[in-house]
Amino acid sequence: MSTQATTNVSRKRRTSKDDTTCPSCPVLLIELIYEILSWLPVKSLIQFKCVCKSWNSLISSSDFVKKHVHRSSIDPNLRNHRLLGIDYNLDHKFVLSLSLRSVIDNLSRPIFDESSFELRLGAEIVQSCNGLICWINYENHNYVNYLNPSTKFKSQSPPCFDHPWVFGDVDEPCFTLFGFGYDLINDIYKTIAIYCDPIGKNTMVKVYELGVSRSWRDIQSLPFFPCTNIDTYSEDYGKFVSGTLNWLCLSCDKSLVIVSLDITDETFEEISVPNVATTLDFVESPKLWVLGGCLCFSYDFNKEHILLWQMKLYGVIESWNIFLKISYMDIGPYYPRPLFMWDNNEIMLKINDDGRFIVYNHRCNSLKHLEFRTSNIWIEGGTYIESLVSPYNVGVN
């Protein structure tokens, strides 16, 4: 082979190698690249995976995905936070997402996502966790599905849970409550299903581990019966906070109590609600929420106003404090749904059935009505953060 031909082959080899690896580290240290990329939005990261093999490996790594989730969740500008909206059709509903920042900034035309995904009318969104959304398809053999709306990746061959339509000696259909959360210790996303008989006597609890098992397994039963409205129990899904899932229940003496499931060791504990709200005699429509990383408890008081308590330190009963009090005179005859809290000071709420948003400022004890309305788009599933978490390989070593 001639010298010129050898040189050409060598150049081709160098060119081929340069196509699959990044520039040498003296240009940018890999630690600095890691730091810069971890602050970028998902859309940019997906594009940057095509830069070279080492960037693809870096962005796809479990450590980077977790770092990006953390960065997105604490971003004060809320650039990666989005609202889930449902646009109903005849036999389907389309799940849209819109920029939370654009709603908070009171834009008349908030920024919607470019694409959507489709659900049948019988499907219900349970909740999101680290950008991964869990939803239940009741019309299709009760499948549990998982989706990342930011990457458009959806779980395949989802597990079907065996719904005991007749529970024990009760010849009536039972109903099911769900919860979805992340086991940080074992790096596993878990879905909890609680089967309840219609007369409030028995429960059965099962758990499914995403990416670990292909079947549901039994765990200990709920110590008390869930306090839920069977017509609106989609809002009564377990609330995930501090590594636990939480449901409102009625104790043996018919008083309100929070039952908390530690998602790692799968054991239940009881947490007291604020002392002034222990019985249904004075409390209507009690509900749990998670705002600002804290468990919250709201209820209708005497049809006059809505009270919302915040547990500043999870599990510490003495840390319950009234965070919000809104009169129906200010918002109309609707039970507001808290969606998001930022700066430990402001809460955005959705006014049910009316397509309106309001922002409550805790420091100033003031309300602001937002211009944006969603009269034909129902906000369901609350908020989520954009992330790279995949429904394919989480929890798999």
UniProtKB/TrEMBL annotation:
What is this protein identified as? F-box domain-containing protein
For this protein, the record's InterPro entries field holds:
F-box-assoc_dom_typ3 (IPR013187), F-box-assoc_interact_dom (IPR017451), F-box-like_dom_sf (IPR036047), F-box_dom (IPR001810), SCF_F-box_component (IPR050796)
Entry's transmembrane regions:
none
Identify the residues that the record assigns to the F-box domain, covering every copy: 28-68
What is any Pfam family matched here?
F-box
Chain spans, region Disordered = 1-20
Query: Which NCBIfam families is this protein grouped with?
Result: F_box_assoc_1
